[in-house]
Specification:
Layout (H helix, E strand, L loop, with lengths): L16 H16 L10 E4 L6 E7 L6 E7 L6 E6 L1 H6 L4
Antiparallel strand pairs: 1-2, 2-3, 3-4
Protein name: DUF2958 domain-containing protein
InterPro entries: DUF2958
Length: 95
């Protein structure tokens, strides 16, 4: 079942406590010696009309439209990696 009307934007997590701080910390580590730290997820986003879930631990400090974490689109194959926050909000999940 899909929602009616335009997709709602993601909540303003860009100012959220840990995700941006975690991204900055790992950006500094990458510039220093390349050894990044694995952070626990700070933000959970989910799709109430589907099975997609994102557990995000970092925001890219240079482009806060990119987040890093575990992305599960509900297909049974979760992936760790980068997600563009504006993409699901604009295109819809699974588009």
């Amino acid at each position: 079942m899909s929602p009616s009307g335009p997709p709602a934007p993601f909540p303003p997590i860009k100012s959220g406590g840990g995700v941006l701080a975690n991204g900055k910390a790992n950006a500094e580590r990458m510039a220093d010696d390349g050894n990044t730290q694995d952070f626990w997820p700070v933000v959970k986003l989910f799709c109430p009309w589907g099975a997609a879930t994102w557990l995000l631990s970092e925001l890219d400090p240079k482009d806060t439209d990119f987040a890093f974490g575990l992305c599960d689109l509900g297909s049974g194959c979760p992936e760790v990696g980068t997600v563009r926050l504006s993409e699901p909000a604009v295109n819809g999940v699974g588009s």
